[in-house]
């Protein structure tokens, strides 16, 4: 479940980044040129770059975390062989910090280390569930697909909506998209839905304003 939630989290964040990154390029380029083909190619290039960048970053991040967890487990295996008293003390302190008496904590620590020594110490010290390591490929693939999917909405809106409806249609597509990612991120993280949605919409609007302004300024030179 933990791995699935982290994969979903990576997907939601990737989708949000895809939306904002692509819309930034689209607005900057669309202000500078009315050529739809040029706008589309610029947006598509940025969408692909963003998707692969998010995927590689997520892969590196999760791989580093997995390596750190594996290293911690290997270190605890050595400590269990060479310094079992220190490990008992560590587990005892863990339970004492949760309000259990010293005597009872000692009994719990000894019993757990007799039954499942490695599982107990890595869980109490690092919060690691032995054998349940995140898969970097799952997180990377989730980010790749979601970033591309997120960027598609503003790209298609800007490219396909005709005439005077192009700008308001694109703005509407961006607002709806970032509102959806805000809603999903709040649900997955047990956060405040309204706050997350409003925050994402504000960020989306600011992103559009900033890149529209930059495009206007660049167009004057």
From TrEMBL:
Subcellular localization: Endomembrane system
Membrane topology: Multi-pass membrane protein
InterPro entries xref list: Ccc1_fam (IPR008217)
Keyword set includes Membrane: yes
Keyword tags: Membrane, Transmembrane, Transmembrane helix
Record-annotated membrane-spanning stretches: 20-44, 139-161, 167-184, 196-214
UniProt-listed PANTHER family: FE(2+)/MN(2+) TRANSPORTER PCL1
Protein name from the UniProt record: VIT family protein
Source species: Apilactobacillus xinyiensis
